[in-house]
Structures
1.
Amino acid sequence: LVSASQLRRLEDFDPSPLEDPRLAVGRLGEVRLATIARSLVVAEERYMNLPPHFSWPDYWLFQMGVARIARFTVNYLELYNLELQARMGGLLHDLGRLILLQLHPHGLQAILTYARENRVPLAGTEQLFLGCTTQELALRFAEKVKLAEPFVDVIRWVNQPEAATRHRELVAAVSLARRL
């Protein structure tokens, strides 16, 4: 509890201590998972360098922003049991782009360039180039590796939260955070 509370103070600037052991253990596990994830090289940064609106720092900042806003949202709504899931859901909601980079390093560049030059929606361009969207790639991956159901649902319904049949509060929080 002490370690998790110290992390909370440092990372979230929240001086209140964690009192729920489940949240504390989840928080420590989340920090360890994030540390391991940062050490993995998934795709070369140069494949994500597409100025002016897309780069690795921009992507990571967006993912972290969605995670923090989703977490803040569930806290504000007093859905404390969803706090850690909201943060992880925010980090995982756009996993498909990383999978695309791993499968086809130049594919993301081609898709973004085509969508920009032709002023067409990104999902339509992904469908044209890949036969599916990066969201569908992420969903297939999440199901294959047996990712926890709440995160699969976030990936599945983040763009249309009103269609969610399970984990509605979590999906809505991540979707709202993404739109903000």
2.
Amino acid sequence: MEAAKTPLRLFISAGELSGDVHAARLVDALAKRTGSVEVIALGSNSLKAAGAKVLFDTARGATLGVIGNLLQAPQKLRLFNTAVRNIMDAKPDAVILIDSRFFNLNLARVLRQKCYQGAIIYYVAPVMWQAASDARYRDIAQQSEQFRANAGRRFEEMRKHVDLALVIYPVGLELYDYFGINYEFVGHPLCETVKPTLGKDELRALAAVEGNAPLIGLMPGSRKEEVSVIGRELIGAASIIARQIPCAAFALPVAHPSLRGQIQAMLKGAKANIKLLEPERRFDLIAHSDLMVVASGTATHECAAAGTPHIMAYRLHPALDFFYANFTRFRLPAYAFPNIIAGRRIIPELIRSECSAANIADAAIRLLGSESEMEQMRRDLAEVRSKICKPNSLDRSAELVIEAISRRMG
């Protein structure tokens, strides 16, 4: 009788809801290859469903930007120390870091300082988004020493402490080459995971859509702050649209169970019938909606992967907006993921003061009334898909993870 295989033992650090989903998909791909995977994680519901022992639900603690993280510094430090302690005690075969650059690069550094001997693999590895529009990053060798030093901080940390970086975005790969990172561009896993499980008629029935009425999906984000600020504008836009297109139907998938009460309270004043859907209906809604209105972030990636026309709307609490407008230098010519990848404006993005119920409604009504604009957006999104998608992304990532672990184990 053949001896049972020893399970692959992993620690996964996924900082928020999108990272949790990516991590769970990778765990499933690894389990198919190895037969057995044991996972301890910082994550959320998707990793739990994949069989992981989740030490802390990071989706509940997700916050926005520098200020939000500073306010949560004591909790983040406890979480960091918990991760280090568990890893050093359990000595897993590998630590897999998912996104969340500041937390995870520091985790990698401390683990190496403590002589952790397993593989450290960065999945959804950090990229320099400015490289998509600023040619200096693509020609980094010709820039000043100071410019190279500023650009190279995250890459030097990866080079020193990370065995393998798996990059899902075709942005700034020249920087990975220049700074000598062991990496591979594996393509965006959403290209193969954003697939509906319900048929179009089933989803429309679930969303209470009548006849041939347009279905508009609303996704206000996965953090409480986002839902509070952006959700108000999306719900207000739905009310305006409903006045002009009375037959229009609206659906909103709750990103995390902890947000349901907050969203239900916000819907009490809505002048539109907005159907709440469970988190697992997210991809069905994206696949079968006529138009999506989404917060910046993962939702724009999902809509791009599905080729679904969408509008990006994003704003911060006024105090946070003032801080980022006046005390940070991070600027991009576009913030919506499809626009960054395409290098031009292919979907409407309404940010800061432009992110209002009236502006969102105007953009949605215009698009719904113009099949030529919608068709052009579908063609442009197909171009984005051709840049971000590679065949069998998850299977290839799992293969590379196993190879990296094997090299570490000698």
3.
Amino acid sequence: PFFSAMRRQRPFVIAKIATSLDGRVASGPGARTHMTGRSADRRSQLLRAEVDAVGVGSGTVLADDPLLTVRHVYRRRPLARVVFDRRLRTPATARLFSTLSSGPVLIVTTPAMADARASHARDLERAGATLVRVHAAGIEAAVAARLPFNIQSLLVEGGTTLHESAWAAGVIDAVRVLVTPRVLGPSGLPWVAWSRLSLPSLFNLRVEPCGPDVMIEGDVYRLD
């Protein structure tokens, strides 16, 4: 993370996702689907405890209303929660704002959207959010905007649109994929990054059982 911040001027980004055996992340679009067992859930919490920030898209906030806190494991300092929200859809009543003692909530949007929805932007700030207005377009600029907040490592947990944008922009440095023995079938929502991710191409590939689930870890090899 330190060298990523110094050389690339952006945090080290880890993509984390839980998929079914047939590569689905939910039973359908917008459906909240918990798939992993207790051991895998604890492993996910350990991942959160190791990074400076955890990030999600606004779609995940709307569908799941997550807390994005570290639970059941020790963390030495607050965890920043980042919502990538260029349309400024995050509700001011989101559960994120009930846990500000666990760490700041940063909402990344555009200046134009913050101006267009000025009343809602003020509601979010009153709820405790820090609005980060990113002038440059693209996910890479949005990720780089974390550095002024001393965020050198970012765990991107979802959803699929945010993952696809991050893969397309080439800002994913490592992956953590939890594969469950469940099969969701063709009606399930696929993880779009499978079309971009080749497991044999990962550097330091590791596979670890987590109860009935499996954690696949690897670094995205880069020449720079």
